[in-house]
Structures are given as structure tokens and as C-alpha cells.
Amino acid sequence: MIRILLAEDQAMLRGALSALLSLESDLEVVGSAADGEAAWREVQRLKPDVLVTDIERPGLTGLELAQRIARHELPVKVVIVTTFARAGFLRRALDAGVRGYLLKDAPAEQLADAIRNVQRGGRAIDPQLAIDAWGEADPLSDRERQALRLAGEGLSASEIAQQLNLSHGTVRNYLSEAIGKLGVGNRIEAYRLARQKGWL
Predict the structure, then answer these.
(1) Contacts (Cβ under 8 Å, ≥6 apart) of 24
(2) Beta bridge partners of 80
(3) Does the predicted TM-score (pTM) go above 0.70?
(4) Can you tell me the distance from the alpha carbon of 156 to that of 154, in angstroms, rounded to the nearest whole number?
(5) What is the DSSP code string of 123-141?
(6) 120-135 core/surface letters (b: 16 or more CB in 10 A; e: else)
(7) What is d(CA 37, CA 121) in angstroms, rounded to the nearest whole number?
(8) Rounded to an integer, what distance in angstroms lies between the CA atom of residue 80 and that of residue 18?
(9) pLDDT tens for residues 135-169?
(10) Which of 78, 114, 127, 189 sees the fewest Cβ atoms within 10 Å?
């Protein structure tokens, strides 16, 4: 049996995925979590073979969760199921050690096949996204990305500094670097462009 943990913030979708996967004789959904931190605790407690997660959710994002799993060298394979058909997200997911990346409008049987393929050591990537992913590299550093994401949520430089445990000047530098790299006029434009490209 392939043991699966589901991390999805929408309860109805989480239930539907669980029901669909449970129909497969070789797949077992051993747990589910609504947010990233809960998913991380469940990964450590249940030690699933495969984590199926979305990208955006409360707490840790799916990509941050994958990075944490890789950093702790846990033998959990990550499959992302998302609405974000953006090459930038896929590139970051692959960099974080994600083995599968599917879109939510894919047929249900594709997810079960992807889980089996990933468990065998393969990859399961949406083909069109795979082609697009190598078009344009993400210029942002992790810290620039964090600062820009918080700026896009409406936080001031001082609030960002407090949240990231950095000095006000350091945050201003990160935001300024991001604006410069993206060739835009201000932090909000930088946030919008980075989101559009899938870099946030």
C-alpha cells in the first residue's frame, strides 16, 4: 500500500480527493491537514510515503513544506496539485525536490497514476508546464521573495522587518533589489509581476 497524506485547505476538496484515492486498491489516505504547519506535524507523526499538497494555503506554503521535507531529509515524496499553471511555480517546486506537479483540472485517474509513478522513483509533471518552465529564470532570492510577498499583503517595511527578524534597512534593501531585478517602479508592481510569473 502507498500511504498518502493530503494537505489541502478547502475541506470539500480534501474530502473529495480522499474519497477518490481511497477507491484505489493500492492507495491508502492515512491523514489530512488544512494548513501547512499541521501538515508538517502530520508528516513527522504519520511518516507517509507521499504528501499530496496544494501550493497556497495558510501557514507554510506547499513549496515551503517541500523545502522543509528536503532539508530534514525525510523519505516523503511530494506531489503538488494546484490551480497555478505557472512555469515559475513549477521551477521552484522542482528546486524544492517536488516529484509531481499536476493541475486541479486534470482527470482524477491521473493523480492516482502520478502517485504510483512518484512512489516508484519517477516524476509526474504536467507536460505543457514542463516545456514552459525553462523559459524564464526566477531572479529573486528567497529573502527578496519573502519581503515582497509580505509587502503585497500590505505590510510596511517596519512590519516586514519585525516579522522576518531583520532590520528595517535590510528589508528596504531586499525590496529595492526585487524592484530593480523586475524592472518596475515600486514594490506593489514588483509583487504583481512576481505573482503573475509564479515567482511568489
Answers:
(1) 112
(2) 53, 101
(3) no
(4) 7
(5) -EE-HHHHHHTTSS-----
(6) eeeebbbeebeebbee
(7) 26
(8) 15
(9) 667 788 989 999 999 999 899 999 999 999 999 99
(10) 127
